[in-house]
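REVIEWER CHECKLIST
Item 1: Sequence provided? yes
Item 2: Single chain? yes
Item 3: Sequence as submitted:
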Amino acid sequence: MSKIAAIIGRFLIALIFVISGASKLMDVASTETMIVAAGLPGGLAIPVGLFELLAGLCLAAGFMVRLVSLLLIGFVAATILFFHNRFTDPMQQIMALKNVAIIGGLCLAFAHSQMWSHYYAITRERRGELEARNAEERIRDAEMRAARAEARADAIADERAAPTYVETTPHTVGDDYGRPGLTGRRRWFDW
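Item 4: Structure as written out by the authors:
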């Protein structure tokens, strides 16, 4: 559930940058005027608009989230520094706080991205351990089957070597009084 929430949050933060970048690219002239009014050199409207648009799309898609988050954190901090630095003006103060909140969200995207890559590493490691244990169990089972087969083969070989029956020869058996008796097999009580 937390992964779904992280994806939704990352998508919503990315939406800010996608819309802002697209609007800068749609109205390059007013963006250029705003950038020059802040004391920055001209010609930055298209690169800034492309950066915001592409970084937002990468963030929404989950592509290189950690790198994109760091770049956007720097970008938003520069925006506070150059455009929303008059903290006595209530509107600029609100805009600066909004950007601080965006930086917080980007930090969470950065951290959560790290957490999931760590989770995936743990999962891969655990999967490897389970596969190794299963392989050991298969080897042990194969050894047990081989030992049983060897024991069966030894038993069959022993049965062939040992007589399976005892030959008896006719002999004279006397009775209890020492008199000659009948010729026949020996009985267990005649021994």
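Item 5: Key structural point noted by reviewer: Strands lie at 171-172, 183-184.
Item 6: Recommendation: ____
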